[in-house]
Write a structure and sequence with these properties.
Layout: E1 15-16, E2 28-50, E3 60-67, E4 70-78, E5 84-99, E6 104-106, E7 109-116, E8 121-129, E9 138-149, H1 158-164, E10 171-185, E11 190-196, E12 201-212, E13 217-218, E14 223-231, E15 236-238, E16 246-262, E17 268-276, E18 285-291, E19 301-305, E20 309-315, E21 325-333, E22 338-346, E23 352-358, E24 366-371, E25 379-384
Parallel strand pairs: 2-9
Antiparallel strand pairs: 1-15, 2-5, 3-4, 3-7, 5-6, 7-8, 8-9, 10-16, 11-15, 11-23, 12-13, 12-14, 12-17, 12-22, 16-17, 16-18, 19-24, 20-23, 21-22, 24-25
Amino acid sequence: MPMLNKALTAIALVLLLAVVTAPVALVLAAVYGVQVSYWQYVWVEIQTVEENGPPAGFVNVVAFELADGGPRLIFEGRTDAMGFFRFDVKFLKKLIAQLEDGTKIYAPINLWVIASREDGLLGTLTQPLNITAMKQPSDTVRFKVQVRKIAQDKAEGSAATASGCALPVPYLEEAWAWTTVLQFSTWDNISAKFYYPIGVQIMVQSKERYWSETTCSYLTGWSDAGVTFVTLDHGIGAADWLRGRTLYTMKFYFKYYFVRTYTNIPGVLVEKIYAVDTYPDPVDCSLITQSWDGRLPGWSYFATVDQNIERYIAISGGAAPSYTFSVGVSVTFTGVGVSVSLGVGKAPNPTGTLTIRAGTWLPGYKVRVESNDGTFVVTRCNWISP
């Protein structure tokens, strides 16, 4: 497993890879490490529908778990005339930790569904299953997969061309990349700490494209294909107060996969890039520092802090897919010569904490902490006049 030193870190900062001071609700009563607890049974109902709404019947459906080591086949079958396909599956529940209030945190399951039919209908779905929030020991989930017609222009001599355009299938390649997960600032007499507790889920965008052996070309470019969840297996925070006219960017080192597989359409392949939940996550972290001019951007979401006060601000995250960082990571796969940028966000729960400590300033002034989207994953702060 590759490990990078923190050469990018511009200042000496101790990052806690254990429990640090945090609000009581986030303090862990016990840390178990990742271990198999028991089975989670899931009844899955999938319906395939066309772009304009009607059901698409008799579509081949293949379901994978986007696991470490590559996609793992869960189930394969064909929908009925109304587009429904039902199956049950059981997953080994991997316990990450138990919080003080008794809540058990489990690793997520990231599903990938490929729906295709021989006449050219094709669609996919990437869907994280939040095992922590599911009913125990069994639950039901229902999804719709939208399929659309994939056109392949057949040129003369296409059969000969296809034989020369065959790509390795199945294909799997892994890569590691620094992934931006948090950004905040400080200023004169304004200090900050942060804490991401064990169990925080980072949402990372997945992208896909389609290849045609018939035309020897890609039918689509890289496009959004939902998100996968990566869960932190240990708490990460700043041990000391961070100061100065500084912009701080927190990056985690995550694992990614490039995969290529068949569809049920002759000659059409699907390629996918995704972040995988592994153990331990993250394997490394780096705090990047740079100077900033102190100008507040004027974002409409904000919190204020009075002088000589410390305030805890919840880092909540948004609903999937919500990319606080439109380009949170750039991943390169050298084997296939592909480099793709992906968006990054944070799932709503559990929350992290940004703590702002306001010192002394001019009479009546207070600190304004602005968020670009209300999640406080990305913030700027400085003094404002009365």
